Amino acid sequence: MKFSFRPNEGAFYELFTSAAHNLVRGTELLNELALPGVEVQSVSERLTEVEHDSDQITHELFKKINSTFITPFDREDIYRLGSQLDDVMDHLEAVGNLLYLYGLTKLPSLPREMHELVNVLDQQAKLTAEAMPRLKTMKSLEDYWIECNRLENEGDQAYRMLLVRLFSGEYDALTVLKMKEVADELEAACDAFEHVANTVETIAVKES
After folding, report:
1. pLDDT tens-digit map of 135-188
2. Beta-carbon neighbour count of residue 52 at 10 Å?
3. Residue 2 pLDDT grade (very low, low, confident, very high; cuts 50, 70, 90)
4. Considering only CA atoms, which of 168, 156, 41 is closest in space to residue 97?
5. Distance (Å, whole) CA 87 – CA 195
6. What's 5's DSSP letter?
7. Interatomic CA distance for residues 85 and 23, integer angstroms
8. Rounded to an integer, what is the distance from CA 74 to the centroid of its chain?
């Protein structure tokens, strides 16, 4: 039986789980943007509210790190994981804000590949939210990081195909510039989810 001097501090796991659930809320809001007749400004504002909530969770996490003598696992890993979860939310908020500010939802339709990227992000968010509570036992996490990395590869493929479409001549130059910025944020969010998964893997290996 393995014995650990580290405390089983539940507050850290709760904060990680709350941050991950906010990512699910974020991707659900991005999916709303594809609905007919959606109030885009409202969705963008709600995304900003979720992002602010995520910032508050991150601040609470960092305060907890600084006020806890012995943490459940390495302080650097706790800090890294909290920062990376917050990074994902920043990218999701940027997508929603850019779509609204650039008026891209007024197009007849957004490129299919853009919807595919949002779908990948939605799957990654749900996987991450399911995985965070399992940090407490460090069990049944391998499938999470393997699938999250596979989804990131799927997102990369959708991103490349989106670029092909953008530069095919289907859209005018200004629209291409606007959508390229949104595409870059979507791809960055996919990458950020993978960074979270890689950090979870690192923590699990250290603690095994």
Report:
1. 998 899 999 999 999 999 999 999 999 999 999 999 999 999 999 999 999 999
2. 12
3. very low
4. 41
5. 10
6. S
7. 8
8. 22
* Radius of gyration (C-alpha) of the chain in whole angstroms: 18
CB 190 within 8 A of CB 155: yes
Asked whether 9 and 71 are in contact (CB, 8 A), the reply is yes
CA distance 197 to 141: 9
**Do residues 5 and 71 lie in contact, with contact meaning Cβ atoms separated by under 8 Å?**
no
Alpha helices in the chain (DSSP H): 10-32, 40-67, 75-101, 112-131, 142-166, 173-207
Structure token pair of residue 57: 């969770």
C-alpha span between 159 and 164 (Å, rounded): 9
Q: What confidence tens digit (pLDDT) does each residue in 11-60 have?
A: 899 999 999 999 999 999 999 987 777 888 999 999 999 999 999 999 99
Its pTM stands at 0.92
Burial of 10 (0-12, 13-18, 19+ CB in 10 A): exposed
Q: pLDDT by residue (tens digit) across 168-177?
A: 999 999 999 9
Q: How many CB atoms are located within 10 Å of the residue 116 CB?
A: 18
